[in-house]
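Narrative progress, year one. The postdoctoral researcher (J.K.) led the effort to move from monomer predictions toward full complexes, under supervision of the PI. The following entry was the first complex the group processed end to end, covering 683 residues in total.
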Amino acid sequence: MTLILFFEQLLNGIQFGTMLFLMSAGLTLIFGVMGLINLAHGSFYMIGAFSAALIAALTESFWLALLASLAGAAIAGVLIEIIIIRRLYRRDHLDQVLATFALILLLSEGVRWCFGAFPLYLNIPNVLNGTVPIFDNIIYSKYRLFIIFMGFLIALGLYILITKTRLGIRIRAGQNDRQMISALGVDISKLYTIVFAIGASLAGLAGAMIGAIQSVEVGMGEPILILAFVVIVIGGIGSIKGALVGSILVGVTDTIGRIFLPELLKVFMEPSNATSVGSSIGSMLIYILMALILIIKPSGLFGKS
Amino acid sequence: MRKFTTTLGALLVMAASSTLADGHKVKVGMITTLSGGGSGLGIDVRDGFMLAVKGNKNISVITKDDQRKPDIAVQLADKMIQSDKVDVLTGIIWSNLAMAVVPATVNQGKFYLSPNAGPSKLAGKGCHKNYFNVAWQNDNLHEAAGGYANSAGFKNSFILAPNYPAGKDALTGYKRFFKGKLAGEIYTKLGQKDYAAEIAQIRASGADSVFFFLPGGMGIGFMKQFSQSGIKLPIVGPAFSFDQGILKAVGDAALGVKNTSQWSKDIDNAANKKFVSDFKSEYGRLPSLYASQGYDTGKLLISAMSKAKIKDMDKFRDALRKADFSSTRGKFSFDTNHHPIQDIYVREVIKEGKTLTNKIVSVGLKDHSNAYVSDCKM
């Protein structure tokens, strides 16, 4: 196990983390501002990927496809917020879970109607195909570096949006006291629609970027949704900073764990048993991490107690 | 009075004829994956099966979606057996679901015809007289891949598969035939789509070839990421990541890859030609190996129904065992543990015009059975 390999795996973990961040940032923002548990967040990931695949097939441009993923998910987000989600803010969490779960089923079935059950084709642009050497002799995928770069760019963008702009002030105010800011004349329902659309479009962007190296298919959002929930619980619900730290933590733990645990077990176990046991424990690691963090900090790393 | 007797007579005749017809009717319960990840496989099996039984008035089929979840599959099977009173169950794609459903089904005196999953347990110690596998024992295609790796001169393979029964069968099957060394062995999470970490391990391992079994969407991700990684190692694998349903999504990254399959659309026999052209005109797409398996399952059922009534289970079982139907694979028979004896081919991914598809390059293993026959005591 060389240091180079370890560093490469660390980069892989960070890349996985930044992608999780795009998902969990929206989720935590929506929960923090509106108090809404949105199980259908994974569906926006899927909608983003399908919008991108559609546009890529029509125009053969990856960059237009990325824009389409943002736009497609945002439009879907606005429509769904106005038609359905708006009615749920005053309800308790169980109603929200039920309604947004129903949305998952509706949206998955709807996408299958439109596009069929077989995976679609979406590929990365030629500029980002292949690898680059970084430092001495670590060879790393250009596209994955691009994902890391985009992830941090968006983290920075969100930071500026939340702390430096008027919209950000309103969002923070909404998080703290929603009755007060509506009393001060802020159109709260418009604010909610905007926040929901931002969250949805971030998920859509993640879907398109990941769809290009994985597969664009119905139901692709659900596995990632579970991880996004783990991230926001670790980071503290409602905190974007928490989402960033939580994502990187989960991404790195998962990647490093599933590769190095089997190697570690091989020291005192028979190889094929070690791989099988090691990868089983590896896939539990993030949940163990979550449990540990919740024992020490019950409201998450950056959550308000 | 006379009128009464004729009416009675007519009633009796009607009753008799309807019981006669009942004896020939078979109710099939199909539990397969129709939604979520991996639904392409279930849809192909269903469509292949429905094409085979199309127009047959004696077969009725109830189809239900298991969502790739073992607990749901078990519930559906219970309901189909107890309230729908099906005679035959079929359809399951995934081995972990098959392990949850098949033993209980066959113990309740129903037939199970597997159109896909063939876990080693059900072929060996856990075999059952009412369980027939029409596709393959899980190890089969991987054994052929191991054999191919030898003939291609690979000496040091890196192997990976998901951590579930079929994944373990896959690596066992490859290792059973492959004579070289292993540069590394990894079990991935079932449903995993990102393989950056595994690809980094492959790069660092010094392997001369890669063998992988990642069915459905999992394989799409792996192939794309592998080709982007710039690693130029030859890949060999079973047909599951190179079937017609997903080649389009993988794109040119799959071109030239050798994969092993018991079926290919260019197998030269009348049954297969008819299947391929009927499937194309019925559904407007090319069939995959899953569709061929569903189709053969349907044809097998029809062949048994023409020989015996389902109520006479012993006779019906014998009729199934004879496998007296013309398979899309050509030669097909059952070994004593009710798993196929068949040729396994090596195929290569090619481009036909703009469509990616497979063509046979050689026969990998001839009249191949499975390693678990002697463990099975029926």
